[in-house]
Write a structure and sequence with these properties.
Blueprint: H1 2-31, H2 36-54, H3 58-72, H4 76-99, H5 101-111, H6 116-129, H7 133-148, H8 153-176, H9 180-207, H10 216-219, H11 222-255, H12 258-294, H13 298-325, H14 327-334, H15 338-343, H16 348-370, H17 374-400, H18 402-427
Length: 435
């Protein structure tokens, strides 16, 4: 079982490592341009897309869960129709995003806080990066399907290509052509289409035998469409609340000033780096949990969940030690701004405790998605966001400032892990009948 987990997790970890690497490169490029405004602009611009795509990231998660369960039950027809249905939903979403880009930009400008300079740079970033939306949405569909098919190597190749190309073009546009924030956005757009091209090539090369003539009766089977939308609506709400929480954190950081915004975004990079390692095992959980539920194998389902949690905890220990021993070194990699280096010191403690506090939530996310236990994962997110994050922020921030903001965020992540642990037996284990 450990071999099965690692076979799926390691490619995901490798591909995920390139994601925070890209974020670090963007931060480094902006951090060395001499103004905290550039870091803030990338943070706020990225927040717009995080919130926007959170509405539609269910395409990846839902496609993985349905495909993995079809794969586990050896239903070849349903495995390919999981992809067909996902793409059929993705295309209208693409049209909607592109047609609504001006209202989205105006609304974002009204809702986001920050200096006029930061907001202006962020909107310029948005209007360029929005043209990566078609590639981004279709990659949700394709990558979700690949993982459901127990293949994490193809998403790894895609992610590596996207992020390497993104870094190359961002450096080219920022350093050579002096495009600053616009250059980072252009790099993202070009890289996304490089990734989509590779995804289509590998899909045709490796799964050509799965393609069958599309039957409208199967594609639009009412019962399956209804379940697909039910699960994905719940996942959409869950993803939206998660990203809204991070966006809220970013926005509240901006209210505390450009330097605090830059400090918090730098510290969040440590959170993202750890999350991408842990998500490698969460994605393995999506594939394996879905497979064992599809094959009605309760023994292996229980075993894989136990081992995934052990792996998550084991990964959190070295990250905690690393962040405790070398906090200043991590920050200096991103920015050499003396004001930021001075202001970040009181907040090192949050970087240190993040791995231990958050690993359970990441692992359980993968388990619940693989089980398509969408209602439960939605409810745990509602509890953590509305009844934990917002109240603790409201009570603590007026007195503790940025410390209160960080404590409320960590309480939010803790609540997610605890709630999903409590609800797992009823919503995951008891869905399988055999012993």
């Amino acid at each position: 079982m450990n071999r099965s987990i690692l076979r799926l997790a390691i490619p995901n970890i490798i591909s995920n490592i390139t994601i925070p690497l890209l974020g670090l490169v963007d931060m480094i490029l902006m951090g060395h341009l001499g103004s905290a405004s550039y870091i803030g602009a990338i943070a706020l611009g990225g927040t717009i897309f995080s919130v926007l795509y959170s509405f539609f990231s269910f395409l990846r998660a839902g496609t993985t869960g349905f495909t993995a369960q079809a794969f586990g039950s050896d239903d070849k027809t349903e495995t390919i129709y999981s992809l067909y249905r996902s793409v059929c939903i993705g295309i209208p979403i693409i049209i909607f995003i592109l047609s609504m880009q001006i209202p989205i930009a105006k609304l974002s400008s009204l809702l986001l806080d920050g200096s006029d300079e930061v907001k202006s740079l962020a909107i310029n970033y948005f209007y360029i990066r929005i043209w990566a939306a078609p590639a981004n949405i279709l990659l949700y569909c394709l990558n979700g399907w690949f993982v459901g098919m127990q293949n994490t190597k193809i998403p790894m190749f895609i992610a590596i290509l996207i992020n390497v190309m993104n870094i190359i073009f961002s450096v080219l546009f920022v350093i050579i052509f002096n495009k600053s924030v616009v250059g980072v956005a252009l790099g993202t757009v070009i890289a996304q289409y490089c990734g989509l091209t590779l995804a289509i090539i590998l899909l045709i090369k490796n799964y050509k035998s799965y393609f069958i003539k599309i039957s409208k009766n199967i594609l639009f089977d009412f019962a399956k469409i209804k379940r697909f939308f039910k699960v994905n609506t719940d996942l959409m709400i869950r993803s939206f609340l998660l990203i809204i929480s991070i966006a809220f954190f970013t926005n509240q950081s901006a209210k505390l000033g450009d330097n605090i915004l830059a400090v918090n975004m730098i510290l969040l990079q440590s959170f993202y780096i750890f999350s991408y390692f842990t998500d490698g095992f969460a994605y393995a959980g999506e594939a394996l949990v879905g497979k064992y539920i599809g094959s009605n194998d309760k023994k292996n389902l229980v075993n894989v969940i136990r081992l995934l949690l052990i792996w998550g905890f084991s990964i959190s220990i070295p990250f905690t030690i690393l962040y405790a021993l070398f906090p200043s070194n991590f920050v200096k990699i991103i920015s050499d701004n003396p004001n930021i280096l001075l202001e970040v010191k009181p907040y090192y403690i949050y970087m240190i405790v993040i791995p231990l506090i958050t690993f359970a939530a990441f692992i359980w996310d993968g388990v619940y998605i693989g089980a398509t236990a969408s209602k439960a994962i939605r409810n745990t997110m509602i509890i953590a966001t509305i009844f934990i994050f917002i109240p603790t922020w409201y009570l603590l921030t007026p007195k503790l400032g940025n410390h209160g903001l960080w404590i409320s965020f960590l309480c939010f992540m803790t609540a997610r892990g605890v709630a999903m642990t409590i609800m797992a037996k009823k919503n995951i284990i008891q869905t399988v009948n055999n012993q």
